Amino acid sequence: MQSFPTSIETRQSWLVATAALVVLMTSFGAAWIVAVALKDIAAEVGGVRAIPAFAAAMTWLCSGAGGILMGRLANRIGTRWTVMGGATMIATGLVISTFGPPWPLWIGHGLFMGLIGLGGINAPLYVYVSHWFDRRRGSALALISSGSYLAGAVFPALFGETIAAFGWRATMLTYAAVMLFIVVPLALFYFHKPPEAPEPVAAAGGTSRPSVLGLRPNVVFALLCAAAICCCIPMAMPQQHLVAFCSDLGFSRTFGAAMLSILLGTAFVSRQIWGAISDKIGGLATILIGSLWQAAAMACFLLSLGEYGLIAVSAVFGLGFSGIIPAYALAIRDLYPAREAYWRIPTVLMFTAVGMAIGGWSAGWLYDHFGTYAPAFAFAVCANLVNAAIVGFLVWRTMDRGRALATA
Question: 349 with 327: CB under 8 angstroms?
Fold first, then answer.
């Protein structure tokens, strides 16, 4: 009988991670249609951008809440079934959204695409894939979390062309069919039960540990959730409003979609680098570095930018923020027992979704009131600095505890 290997990672682990990447890329692709068509949809409701922005915000917010519910369900019945169900619900939500703004658009994106669509796919896959890895968990989580940015690199330019030629409704209907054709077979054939593994050394002792970083475990968890909101407010604004922002500066929608593709394309590439870095320095330190980088890049959007300036800032922003989200999941696995991953990871991802929702919606609301994105971008920088302060405190606690142990 073969002895248990020192590592649970195998070739199958990376096949599962690759399938998860394709599933997440396809699933998040649906959410980019409203970002590219923001001005077209707003034109149907008197030019109010907050209405389509709210649909995008509801997608993020409801997917986070749904992730907690679906994470528990996936823990009971298997991730395969929540992913297949989620793909069906995203397709349904796209069909409902074509009935127009505001309410069909909000219900289609919030309830169907977000709560029971992405909610059944995103957070459950983070937990699921983390159980296939122990040595290169950070790299694996970085890979699968790149799905949303790979979608942003691939689809906005394509959607820009199809929306211009056929309209945003036809684009949504076509993509609904794509969801069912790609995601359901992948989930059926690849997402089997993950391997059993002993608790990692970092989680030894399980729930009997009196503290995390010298604090109550849930105090640290609450700080991570608050930090997740603050970092995702600025993260959402360029992703949801860059096409419209470029249009306000006099550039075409095609150019704006290309900028979004540059931003998310660099995010996809750099996220793989951040994953390797996080395996070395840990999740918390990765969040702090990415947060400070993101704040600096966000501030650059407040400057007067020409064509080359927009290209440069979009690329720099993508390089900086891309490692943050998977680092939260890695930090949870570093600090807490594996048996708690099924609810802690979806919960922290829900708070990242809250931040994405606040960022995307508030940018549209502030634009409607001021006629410029400058106040929104300034608000984003302030939120980012709050995130850096919280995470910096946790990193300091980590270093302080390390010095205390070394002295002992």
Answer: no
